[in-house]
Amino acid sequence: MSKGKNIAEFDLINDYFRGMTQQRRDVLLGIGDDAALIRVPKGMDLALSVDTLVAGVHFFPEIPPADLGYKVLAVNLSDLAAMGAEPAWVTLALTIPQIDDLWIAGFCSGFTELATRFDLQLVGGDTTAGPLSITVQVQGLIPAGEGLRRSGAGAGDDIYVTGSLGDAALALRCKQRGADDREDMEQLRMRLDRPVPRVEAGIALRGVASSAIDISDGLVADLGHILRSSGVGARVTLDSLPISPAVAAMLEESGDWSMVVAGGDDYELCFTIPPDRKDQLAAIAKQTGVTLTRIGVVEEGVGLRCLRGDGSIWQPEHGGFEHFSNGSGQY
Ligand code: ADP
Ligand code: MG
C-alpha cells in the first residue's frame, strides 16, 4: 500500500496472502519483496491478463466472500484459457473498506481453491483501503508461437462453444427480480458465482482452433470480436446453441434469446476450427470432459446473423454487456 501502511496490512500479508497458494519451483522470489522474480522457461511465451471486479458493477456486494475469491480468479483464468495458456502465477490487488477477518478468510479460501486446482502461485499484490474492488492479474505459459488469437478465423471454419450458455444470465435475472426461490437456484447461482474456466479445453485447442475467445459479455458480442479481428462474418443457428433445461424452460416461456446470446458471464470458450481438423474435437471433448457444440459457420463478408429454426433472422435488442453505456446489466 502506498499510503498509511500499518501493522494490520503486514499481518494480512503474513497471515493470509503469503501461504495462500502452493510454491512453484519457477518462482525465485514470491511475496515479501518489492517485486516477484520468476524464471520463465525457455521456448515459452508469457501470456498476461488483468481484470478488475467492482462491487455493485460486477458482483452483488453481499456475495459470499469465498465465491468472490473464486470468481475474481476464475474470470482471469478464463482469459488465459482463451489464449491456450497454462496458468502459472497470479498477483492480487485488493481494495477493501475495512479489515474483516472472517471476510478475508472466506475470500482467500475461494481464491485458494481455484489456484490449487491449476497449480497457480500468488506471487504478489497490493492491499489498500477503499470501496471494495479487486484486481487480479494472471500469467501463464504457451509454447512459443502457439497462442490462440481472435484473429485467425477463416471463411468455412466451423464455430463451436464449450459447455452451455445462459445459465449465469438467468441466475442474475432471477436474483434481480427476487425470483430466486426456485428449486434449481443454487445450481444456477453456481454458474454465476463459480464459473469453471475452460483451461484444459483452451490448452487442448492449441494448434487446432483457428481463433478463440472467452464469452464474458455474451456470445454475440464476443463472437463479434473474433469476426472483426478476423475480417469475416458468420451465421449462427439459435436452435443449435447448447442450453441447460432451466434455460430451455425460460425460452419456452418467453422466447427471449437475448439471455442466451447476450447475457454475459458465461465464461465458456467460443472458437473456430477449419473443417479438416474437426475430427480432433471428439478426442478433445473426451480428454477434457467438456462438451463442444457446433453452433454455426464463418462466412465471407461482415456481421453475425443469428437464424431461428424457420430460417428467419433474429435481431438482438442489445449486443452484450458494455460498461459506459446505460445497459441494464448492472448488479
Ligand atoms: P510495496 O510498498 O513495496 O509495494 P507492499 O507493502 O504493498 O509493498 O507489499 C509487501 C509485499 O506483500 C509485496 O511483496 C507485495 O507483493 C505483497 N502483497 C501486498 N498485498 C498483497 C495481496 N493482496 N496479495 C498478495 N501479495 C500482496
Ligand atoms: Mg505495494
Characterize the structure shown.
With about 325 residues, the chain is α+β, with helices and mostly antiparallel strands. It has two domains: about 10-145, 60s Ribosomal Protein L30, Chain: A (2-Layer Sandwich), CATH 3.30.1330; about 160-315, Alpha-Beta Complex (Phosphoribosyl-aminoimidazole Synthetase, Chain A, domain 2). Helices cover about 30% and strands about 25% of the residues. It is built from ten helices and 13 strands. The strands form three sheets. A seven-stranded mixed β-sheet has the order 8-10-7-11-9-12-13, with helices on both faces. It has a four-stranded mixed β-sheet with strand order 3-6-4-5. Strands 1-2 form a two-stranded antiparallel ribbon. The longest helix has 19 residues, at about 65-85. The relative contact order is 0.16. The model is unreliable at about 325-330 (pLDDT under 50). Adenosine-5'-diphosphate binds near residues 1, 5 and 125.
Helix and strand topology:
Blueprint: H1 7-17, E1 27-29, E2 37-38, E3 44-54, H2 65-83, E4 86-96, H3 101-117, E5 121-129, E6 133-143, E7 158-162, H4 167-176, H5 185-193, H6 199-204, E8 211-215, H7 219-230, E9 233-237, H8 245-254, H9 258-262, E10 268-273, H10 281-288, E11 292-299, E12 303-307, E13 313-314
Parallel strand pairs: 4-5, 9-12
Antiparallel strand pairs: 1-2, 3-6, 4-6, 7-10, 7-11, 8-10, 9-11, 12-13
Bound molecules: adenosine-5'-diphosphate and magnesium ion.
